[in-house]
Amino acid sequence: MGQSPHQRIGREPRMARIGFIGLGNMGAPMARNLVKAGHEVACFDLSAAAMAGVPGARAAGSAADAATGADFVITMLPAGQHVRDAVLGAGGIAAASPPHAVLVDCSTIDVATARAVAEGCGRAFLDAPVSGGVMGAEGATLTFMVGGDDAAFAQAEPILQQMGRAVIHCGGAGAGQAAKACNNMMLAATMIVTAEAFVLAESLGLSHQALFDVAAKSSGQSWSLTTYCPVPGPVPGSPANRGYQPGFSAALMLKDLGLAVGAAEAGGVATPVGARALELYRAFVEAGGAGRDFSGIIEYLRDQ
Q1: Secondary structure of residue 41 in the 3-state scheme
Q2: Could you give the CA distance from residue 195 to residue 173 in angstroms, rounded to a whole number?
Q3: Residue 62: which of 44, 48, 41 has the closest Cα?
Q4: Alpha helices in 68-110 (DSSP H)
Q5: CA-closest candidate to residue 156, choices 31, 94, 75, 72
Q6: Could you give the CA distance from residue 82 to residue 121 in angstroms, rounded to a whole number?
Q7: Which of 36, 180, 217, 255 does the annotation list as catalytic?
Q8: CA-CA distance, 89 to 63, in Å (whole number)?
Q9: What's the rounded mean pLDDT across residues 42-54?
Q10: In whole angstroms, what is the distance from residue 36 CA to residue 20 CA?
Q11: Is 139 exposed, middle or buried (CB count within 10 Å of its CB: 0-12, 13-18, 19+)?
């Protein structure tokens, strides 16, 4: 594919024309970081208020308008069907973007859809879901898990680096989504058992800080403990200190667990702990926790 003069070459930063579709809690700060880096960004979201939340970007009239003339088109959408429709639908991103464009989907969707869109779009396509939550999106410290061919990855990597701290090429089409599903299944299970340990400590008269101080320097150490501690106090930046405002909502964790367990079932792979984590997060969401941070499951566990 030919290369636009606006694209980055290698790792040297250069201005690019970027279309960004989907300006939710994650997409908006990601788009703002691209504007801050000096790129020419055209944004589209069904919410006019969301588009107004990215100052310095052009408010496009449609996803196709945002993609027209773009070197990169980034999507951050709720589910696989939204991505399929936005990219492959009549008058969609694939048809509107120039032949040299690289399409980068940062949504979290199923592997099969990611591969189908990559095969059908007629453009270089990367599935590049993220980890790091809203704090990571705002601070440009996200981790990108990327699937797609080497050439497309090399072109998009410098752009992704301006929104994240780690950009990891996981393999071919769908590999980024596969890595995200596996990672978040691990995260969910680790958060649950970390929360259980604090509830147990409470019943035994052990303070939150004492358990944290021991486990953070022992074999119980994990990201769920030392970065995202589910009780207030030991990690001041964790959502527990702001009433479990997300962060990363329990509804999104339930969605990701569903993708992971669904993939395991389709492949005949036993994931009993992941399946139990799915059950617990479903119960938490049904009990009213959908809009709370996923670490707030500790309050559901206390009530059991």
Answers
A1: strand
A2: 35
A3: 44
A4: 80-88, 93-96
A5: 72
A6: 14
A7: 180
A8: 11
A9: 96
A10: 14
A11: middle
How confident is the model over 206-265, as pLDDT tens digits? 999 999 999 999 999 999 999 999 999 999 999 999 999 988 899 999 999 999 999 999
- Structure token pair of residue 25: 């809690």
Q: For the chain, percent helix, then strand, then coil, each to nearest 5?
A: 50, 15, 35
Predicted confidence at residue 102, as pLDDT, reads: 98
d(Cα 38, Cα 98) in Å, to the nearest integer? 21
Calpha distance 59→190 (Å, rounded): 40
Cβ 24 vs Cβ 82: under 8 Å = no
Q: Are the C-beta atoms of residues 39 and 30 closer than 8 Å to each other?
A: no
Is 180 annotated as catalytic? Answer: yes
Which residue do the tokens 């492959």 mark? 88
Helix (H, G, I), strand (E, B) or coil at 68: coil
Sign of CA dihedral 213, 219, 222, 225: negative
Question: What are the tokens at 174?
Answer: 């769908």
Closest to 299 (Cα-Cα) out of 192, 207, 213, 187: 192
Maximum CA extent, the chain = 66
